Amino acid sequence: MSLVRAPLVLLHAVLYQLASTPPNKTPPKGRYDASEAPWIRIAPLVFKIQQPLVWICTLADILLILAHHLPAPAVRSSLNAVLCPSAPASPFIRPTIPFFTGLALVAAGTLLRLACYRSLGPFFTFDLALLPKHQLVTTGPYRVVRHPAYAGSLLILAGLGLADLSPGGWIAECVSAGATLSNFGVGLAASNSMLWAWGAFAVWYAWWLAVGVRRARMEDSALRQAFGKQWVDYAHRVHWWFFPGVL
Predict the structure, then answer these.
(1) What whole-number distance in Å separates Cα of residue 244 and Cα of residue 247?
(2) What pairs with residue 183 in β-bridges?
(3) CA distance 176 to 106
(4) 51-58: long-range contacts at Cβ-Cβ below 8 A with a sequence spacing of 24 or more?
(5) What predicted TM-score, i.e. pTM, was given to this entire model?
(6) Are 12 and 100 in contact (CB under 8 A)?
(7) Rounded to 10 degrees, what is the CA torsion of 133, 134, 139, 144?
(8) Which residues pair with 186 in a beta bridge?
(9) How do residues 69-89 score in pLDDT, each as one tens digit?
(10) Vertex 226: Cα angle to 224 and 229 (nearest 5)
């Protein structure tokens, strides 16, 4: 069991907490997404729901790592029994290349979102809104793409999947280790359980991408209406929404 993973997995949770906490409250007036479908408007709420999920994975990893290094076998056995009841042996919680890759993506996405918070200042809200004296910001990361905060979110979500679902983490080593699914009387191994987890994550990621695209279109429309030629000139200079040359 590697102690190296403990501070790093804690870092990934702290970074997500920073990236998913609104820098400003949404004003009571000025929202322009009220007529949109609920699956668009709930995106800020989903950000909040994901916070405890990330922390659960993080604390489970840390507790299992610390339990392995504690001199008290009874405590170790108790924690393993609670957190890994189906695992055949003590789980091997460890950092892996996918974990390090995921951590790097979470860090990059968080730094990008924090840069957006700083560039937009009081104009950055999680809900789609135009504030009094709103300004068209074209500096910082907005010089490169028009919606860098969504790019940051996509990087973070990909990083969370790699960090928390890859081998070496609590979900792969414990949650799915003893899981079996019955399909016409045939037991499926834990590896197939992880396929289900990755499949659910792929659907989740596709939903976030669809939300990002829809919100980007809505923001472009609202800003074009509010700023006219100033926005048209900006969009002519900055073509891409999230990633230059990709989307």
Answers:
(1) 7
(2) 186
(3) 24
(4) 51/16, 51/17, 51/20, 54/12, 54/13, 54/16, 54/17, 54/160, 54/164, 55/13, 55/17, 57/9, 57/13, 57/164, 57/169, 57/170, 57/171, 58/9, 58/10, 58/12, 58/13
(5) 0.90
(6) no
(7) -170
(8) 183
(9) 877 787 878 888 889 887 656
(10) 55
